Amino acid sequence: MAQNLKDVRRRIQSVKNLRKITAAMKMVAASKLRRAQSRAEAARPYAEAVQGVLLRLAANAQGLRDPLLAERSGDATLAIVVASDRGLAGAYNANLNRAAAQKLAGTSRPQVVAVGRKVRDFFRHRGVRIAAEFTGLGDEIPFSLADRIAGEATRLFLDGQCDRVQLVYAQFVNPVLSRPVAVQLLPLAREELGGGGQGAARQRGAAEGEYIFEPDAEAVLAKLLPHYVSVLVYRALLEAKASEFGARMAAMDNATRNAGDLIDRLTLQSFRVRQAAITNEILEIVAGANALRG
Amino acid sequence: MALIAVEVVTPERQVWSGPAEMVIARGAEGELGVLPHHAPLITFLVDGPLRIRRPGGGELVIGTRGGFLEVKPDRLTVLASEAELPEGAAQEDGGNTVAVVER
Fold it and tell me: What domains appear along chain A, each with residue ranges and CATH number?
């Protein structure tokens, strides 16, 4: 309590300024979150249509084979880790990096495709090989970025640099909750192609009649699968963006509330300091008067 | 004349949808004209113009890059990596013309 009044008041002012900033950042994050959500929404019809084509392809052609579907015995793992370029989003980046590190632990030759500066810095610090990095992403993710990321991962997979590719990103549950998930990207799961055989999707596809494939099913599949990988990556990127803004909004909301609490405490303290100063002055006056009288 | 429902979608948004008399695309095996009641078909597309012949005359040309074409007897879906509508073209749905609203 030895602080003087001026210091306390200055402190209050600086916390008030800080609160303005965090409150503004919260609102910015909230509006970006809405945009990110609507973008994720807009991407759904395409993803479903591509999946539909894939299902009908699987239903109409027997025993499809493609390098992207082939399971391998090795366990050299490449993780595409999608987080953020910037901090101030609570534990968002840390949670994702931790989930990815766990996924890579114990595999031979772990590698990372880092999406976001925070991911690159984390794994570089840990000495994990960074096969590729994509930073400076901005708020709006173009499909071409997903295409480039997917293309890089596919190339490494086909070159035999890794035996499987995991995609680690924050699944968007609701604006205040996201969950880091790891899904296998390559080799592609056969279930997505209608259970590899007798799935309901296969029957549904067959019910729609025989399809003609030009030039043939194998060629269409060879074109469609890499594209499907891009679509999966794109979906993950959009969800991760929405999660990021949600996390940032929650973090800034917290910070704003904390600043409010701090201001209340400091205001109380300023009253006390002021009261103490007044009491002191009165004591001095009384003492002086007493001395004169004495 | 019978019509076929056409839908052009990119990963980022739905670009155009509406009815057509005929669609001409550049497929894997060269140019390909699709009329209503075409047999189910799936092919991939080569970069180039997608020509949509509208009911009542007129042709809409959409530039596409990459992608796939799926044809069902009553429905044609173009899944393109990118698609560009000509200047001033409207996005249609079910025959009701709705202007493309710029964000």
Answer: 27-250 (3.40.1380.10)
